[in-house]
Amino acid sequence: MEFVTEQGKQPHHEECSTLILPALSIGNVGQLAVDLLVSSMKAERIGYLDDPFVLPCVGNDAYGPIPDGDLALPLEAYELSSSCLNLLQQRSPVVKGRTVEFAKNLANFAAASGKEHVVLLSSLDFGKWQKIDMSSGLQIHYLSSINPDGRDDHCEQLGWKRLQEYNPAQRCWKYLSTLAEGNTMLESNLPFEDELEDEDYYPSLPFAAIFSCLKAKGLKVTCLLCYCSEGDNIQDAFQLAEAACRLLGLNPCTFPGKCLLSQGLYQIYSFTLSAELTQSTEILSAFSGILVASVFSQEFFLLHFHSADHVGLEGHYHWLLQLIVLVSLLSALAVMFQPTSLSAVLVLSVSVVFQGCWFMNMGFMLWSPQFVPRGCIMQSAESGGDSMHGAVTCFSHEADMRARALANLQFSWILSGIMIFTGFTCLKFAGKRTPRPPSIEYEQLQIRGSDVPITMDSFKQADP
């Protein structure tokens, strides 16, 4: 395997001791996760790898919004010097029957470039999952080279489960270890490809060969795995990429939309607090009104793009939230131009309260397993972290439509409850209002800018 440095770049292999790379498997989740890490962390491409066992391919720029002719090749190396991290993206499959040779070349390259820890991202066929436990949603499974049985205390603390099917004494796992250590003697009792049993499925995958070869080189290897099926695996890629960030102590807020929403909410709360402390009587006029409108416009803008990667039931909840924020924005603009309008102020107040209630409702319905609608499950829930990204997946179209209908009912119920409370409060205060008597006092006539007193020099009696 030969490394070719990109023109004008200076790699720092010795300083970057950690390597993240995918292993091709069902759904290409590992490759999607690496793409997500590269694009969100703005990693710099430093070169390419050339290996005879990887099928050649070429494509246009993989990350630019507009293709500019920057070619993408089968094996690309990226660097994030601020985190002492290298990433390797594989865009082409390995030649059939040459997986072990490719894994050996990859292990030799990792060892020669000074890598100490390799994080391997891959996926497993959901149909092969024997002991399914969906009590906490879909989980991350791991396999580590620290202990002979594949266990890692740090991964256990993060709430992940060791790959139960890993057995170093099993014939195929043992055979991989033998090949990785340089022993080319074939065992006569190994099955043919069409004779593989269920226990032979996992060691037959590319991640197993790469894991065994890296382990044979004395490197620390952590495989992060998730079960999935063919189809839209974007959420699985987010789950796997976030798991890699948690493992390495990186900030998952670099993902698009992770921390954007909190910025707009922080501005709203800060503005409200300052208004209460200063006791301003013209809070929504002039500059203050512009500030409120800008806060809601930013919130709507961030929510719109934050919701771009949310599909299904969660996407529907986010769409309804955008409607509430849009009403808040329009009412804030109305109050800015008509500060004495009771209707505009009332709509603004109701919409802000509605936002808070809807946020709490989303928290219960999307991130609490006991409140997930029937026929749906949480797609991502991890108990070991302080930040959690969740989504709900429904098993059938009928279950999805039923869950969306429930969300619409909750929207109507919450809005009705707020309107009933608002109407009752208005009637209560209106009943206690004391009518103002008509004023009989004289008032000085004024002209805007300066007071002009009105003098009367003489009186003239009118003839009847």
Automatic annotation (TrEMBL):
Membrane protein topology class: Multi-pass membrane protein
Protein name as catalogued: Proteasome assembly chaperone 2
InterPro entries: DUF716, Proteasome_assmbl_chaperone_2, Proteasome_assmbl_chp_2_euk, PSMG2_sf
Membrane spanning stretches: 283-305, 317-337, 344-367, 411-430
Localization annotation: Membrane
Organism, as annotated: Hibiscus sabdariffa
Signal sequence extent: none
Keywords from the named record: Chaperone, Membrane, Transmembrane, Transmembrane helix
Family the entry assigns: Belongs to the TMEM45 family.
Chain coiled-coil ranges: none
Predominant location: membrane
